[in-house]
Amino acid sequence: MIHGNNLHQTEAMLRQAESIDAWAWSELNDTNRTNYSAIRGAYPFYAHHAKGAYLWDVDGNQYIDYMLGYGTIVLGHTDERVTSAVCQEIQSGHLVSPLWKPQQIELTKTLTSVIPKAEMAYLMKTGSDAASGAIRLARIKTRRDKVIRWGYNGWHDWATPRPVGVPSGVRKDVFEFTYNDIDSLHKLFKSHPDDIACVFMMPFELEKPKDEFLHEVREIAHKNGALFILDEMRSGFRLALGGAQEFFNIQADLATYSKSMSNGYSISAIVGRADVLKGISQTKMTATYFGSSAEMAAAHATIAILKQSDTIEHIWSVGQLFLNELKNLVHEHKVPAEVVGYPPYPFLQFVEPDAMKREGMKRKFYTIVAQNGVFFHPNHHWYICGAHTEADILRTIDICRKGFIALQDGEK
Asked: Which of 226, 257, 215 is nearest to 115 (CA)?
């Protein structure tokens, strides 16, 4: 296990990539600080391989991974059961468009069986695909144009958090409300009576929903003739097998899924009411790669494993251990930070009121933990997977302690 400042290959690759790879240039540009690129010199950028709850960068450094492909990995990296299903499907020919493979029937049947009261499913490739598709279906069903949304719903024009390059007219019918503030939703419906097609939202991010908040949102949407759609990209197949709908005992008209449903393979789905999904026949929402059955095999295998094992219970158990131990550590070292989130999605939120000091604390803490073998994201909640063990959690806590001690030493 190699750690410290050994990022020589990483830096060499970054210097090469900055001039030819638009992704690398964008991430390292001074205007982009939402990523961990602000801690260049301490953080890995290029991975060599990953297995279970661990990843190794191109310099040979090993990390306990808490980002897990932005939550796509729920079982653990390169799970052999999923890999075997994918390889078998590839060997039989996985893209035969315009024909379909039997995997399509198997997966849609699985989705409608594990997601509460789901009647039909439509398979796509990415989360943004499914989100935009759900919005279109809502507009077809209601014959209305306007949309109320909350959370991160993808990169497409109507939802991107950075709308530079997007014509203003594209977003004129899309409004945002405030999470856990039901009055802000009431006001939007009052301002646009009989015009709202749907309320489209993540069930939560860092902040948990207040009692009955999600049910109130659904009730208001239906009272005003709008659909209630849940963006379950992060909550699906990790919060519970049936996602947020099962966990919060709430029924959405449509819900969108990706990430954990396939343990890292690119596939997404819109799932819910058949009468809404049948609106697809009135529009065109197809792409060449939607029919690739390799990813369907990955999703079918992943969901089967989650259904037949205690993986989700294990994620909750070790995630709760992580939250408890991290809270104790914050209290012990009197760090101006809060431990937030549900056990499958823990996060450390620094609350130092001085913005400059807060950013300095974040930089120091995340530098120390990365150099000691833990891969967190400074600006995005983390994830727990089925491959994390109690030993991984306790080792992570010990490394976090080093980060907090470094903060205290800095103050002295």
From this structure: 257
Is 80-308 a CATH 3.40.50.10420 domain? no
Burial of 360 (0-12, 13-18, 19+ CB in 10 A): middle
| List of E strands, 85-207 | 120-124, 146-150, 174-176, 196-201
Strands 196-201 and 227-231: parallel
8 Å CB contact between 166 and 160: yes
Q: Parallel, antiparallel, or unpaired for β 374-375 and 174-176?
A: unpaired
* Helical spans, DSSP H, in 115-174: 127-142
The structure tokens listed for 334 are 């009197």
Query: Per-residue pLDDT for the chain (412 aa), expressed as one digit of tens each?
Result: 656 568 999 889 988 888 898 888 877 765 555 566 657 778 899 999 999 999 999 999 999 999 999 999 999 999 999 999 999 999 999 999 999 999 999 999 999 999 999 999 999 999 999 999 999 999 999 999 999 999 999 999 999 999 999 999 999 999 999 999 999 999 999 999 999 999 999 999 999 999 999 999 999 999 999 999 999 999 999 999 999 999 999 999 999 999 999 999 999 999 999 999 999 999 999 999 999 999 999 999 999 999 999 999 999 999 999 999 999 999 999 999 999 999 999 999 999 999 999 999 999 999 999 999 999 999 999 999 999 999 999 999 999 999 999 998 766 5
Q: Do domains 8-65+311-411 and 80-308 have the same CATH topology?
A: no
Domains of the chain by residue range: 8-65+311-411, 80-308
Query: Which amino acid is present at 186?
Result: H
Cβ neighbors of 194 (< 8 A, separation 6 or more) are 144, 224, 225
Can you name the residues that pair with 236 across neighbouring β-strands? 240
Q: Which two tokens stand for residue 240?
A: 């519970």
CATH fold for domain 8-65+311-411: Aspartate Aminotransferase, domain 1 (3.90.1150)
Identify the H or E element spanning 51. strand 47-51
For residue 110, what is the enclosing H or E element?
A: helix 102-114
H/E segment holding residue 120: strand 120-124
